[in-house]
């Protein structure tokens, strides 16, 4: 299922409120308590989301040859995540987070090295 986000442009105000369009439709509120300047940065990042998604979609669509395979997979996964689509790359990243130990070994395979994405896909 593909999610449709509220069309941009989005904007952030000094209170961490992220709004969309001329009517300033409330999209999100960045937490501000105890966050200091990080709250402003978070709201600004949220407000940039539609433009970031479009730019990444354009790169993946028109310049895939300019990216190495790993970066292309990561870019496609980021676009999918923004659209609410779970990809094999997302599943692989979850494998790395859950199976990996501090030394880069796979705790689910008796301490063997973690699988590369290609190995994981083939397993």
Query: Given the helix and strand composition, which structural class is it?
Result: alpha+beta
Q: Calculate the mean pLDDT score and round it.
A: 81
DSSP strand (E) fraction?
5-15%
**How far apart are the first and last residues' alpha carbons, in Å?**
26 Å
Key structural traits:
single chain, 123 residues, alpha+beta, three-stranded antiparallel beta sheet, two-stranded antiparallel sheet, 4 helices, 5 strands
Secondary-structure map:
Elements: E1 10-12, E2 17-20, E3 25-29, H1 37-62, H2 69-82, H3 88-99, E4 105-106, E5 112-113, H4 117-122
Antiparallel strand pairs: 1-2, 2-3, 4-5
Describe what you observe in this structure:
With 123 residues, this protein is an alpha+beta fold. 47% of the residues lie in helices and 13% in strands. The protein has four helices and five strands, in the order E-E-E-H-H-H-E-E-H. A three-stranded antiparallel β-sheet has the order 1-2-3, covered by helices on one side. A two-stranded antiparallel ribbon has the order 4-5. A hairpin with a 4-residue loop joins strand 2 and strand 3. It is extended, with a radius of gyration of 19 Å. The two termini are 26 Å apart. The model has no long low-confidence stretch (mean pLDDT 81).
Provide a compact summary of the structure.
The chain is an alpha+beta fold.
